[in-house]
Amino acid sequence: MNPNKIKPGKLLINNEWTNATSGKTFDVINPSTETVLTQVAEADKADVDIAAKAARRAFDQGPWKKMSARDRGRILMRLATLVDKHREELAELETLNNGKPISETLNADLPLTIETFEYYAGLADKIHGDTIPVSGNYLNYTLREPAGVVGQIIPWNFPLLMAAWKLGPALATGCTVVLKPAEQTPLTALRLGELIAEAGFPAGVVNIVPGFGPTAGAAVATHPLIDKIAFTGSTDVGKTVMKLASENLKRVSLELGGKAPNIVFADSDMDAAILGTMQGIFFNQGEVCCAGSRLFLEDSIHDEFLSRLKTHTEKLVLGDPLDPKTQMGAQVSKEQYDKILGFIAQGRDQGAKVVTGGSPAQPKGYFIKPTVFSEVTDTMAIAREEIFGPVVSTLKFKDVEELTARANNTIYGLSAGIWTRDIGKAHRLAREIKAGTVWINCYNCFDAASPFGGFKQSGFGRELGKHALELYTQVKSVWVSLD
Length: 483
Hints:
By secondary structure, this protein is α/β, with parallel strands linked by helices. The chain has a 7-stranded mixed beta sheet with strand order 14-15-16-13-12-18-19, with helices on both faces. Strands 9-8-7-10-11-21 form a 6-stranded mixed beta sheet, sandwiched between helices. Strands 5-6-22 form a 3-stranded antiparallel beta sheet, with no helix packed on it. The N and C termini lie far apart (69 Å). The chain has helices at residues 45-60, 63-66, 69-85, 87-98, 102-123, 159-173, 187-199, 213-222, 235-245, 270-282, 302-313, 334-349, 381-384, 400-407, 423-432; strands at residues 11-13, 16-18, 25-30, 35-41, 131-132, 138-146, 149-153, 176-180, 206-208, 228-232, 251-255, 261-264, 294-298, 353-356, 371-374, 391-397, 412-413, 415-419, 437-440, 455-456, 459-460, 473-481.
């Protein structure tokens, strides 16, 4: 793919590609070169209004409402097949726009995207209610009906995959969608829109409105024709979305930030734990909500583990994200690049020691060296705030009781990692850790069938698996007198 020949992007509304009502566009940047890839139409309140009306018509009147669940599943499966057919093109486009290595987009993002669409295609005709043995001479049964028009706001760290996580269950249940991709990374969502039209989705079922949070995002969150909001992003923005949605009592699901404890006991397989730690913090340049950014090391292995982690970290290959040998690419934007460097400076100022990294990696592009801190305390900003970058803070611990309290001493509760050969201890600790996902002797494992979501200020609701169907359906109870 020639980065200089990426076509300008438009809005997808009612299966038609259109300019923004205002005529505005914005630049889409390649973070590895700091050059402009293309311009994309900038949606605002007026465009979201048109999209919401199209989605409402498609839900209330269009063929989507009348279509059988099995036929909806067939269209979703066609989309999965089309994404698979274009996987190399989509992977390259994602890498150009996001800065992540092509090895990750090809081997993680795209397979999981395809799997998600396939999973929900198969689940579409298996969504049903129950009959309930109530008192009296009545037949009581429930219907599980689609929630309606759904506004979906997705982040920039896994643009295509997060679109699939949101669209898959919404479309399987019969909802219609207004999707707002992140302004930093709209390109794969727009290409997906072309494949959605090709797969045969009726007009208005999926509408894609790239734009900025305060304008397009806020309009999605407040629009009276949109029944439900699904948001993935930072906790601060999630709070804003929830406040906006409360104006007309929309249903809301939020998948937000994290500050995951990754816990390594002395009895663990150290080789596996080191590789898992690397995967847990440097995958996707650390721009992962469930990143293992707090590395708790048992006292007796702290120094050896830290030394070996330093060696492995310094061998990571940084560079051109399109090079298959590259293991870590560029941060997504100048804003994120500056934010991460600011946290690194703050860590130094508060007394933490940089073991390796801690500085820009290249003069051009938003590259930061993978960074390991030691001598970190629980109260430091780098141990409490979500950095969303390739920065890990190591902390010592002595026993499980102390460790549990410290691991849970955070506003977040998205994920955690545990490394030990004592499986009883692992299971006990998994029960004690307040997090939606706990990985034992592994990290960053995902499957379309397994739920993902947070506790505390990491959000509520579950993506993936059959649990996600609850986000996009509502239950109706029907009573029939048998007298």
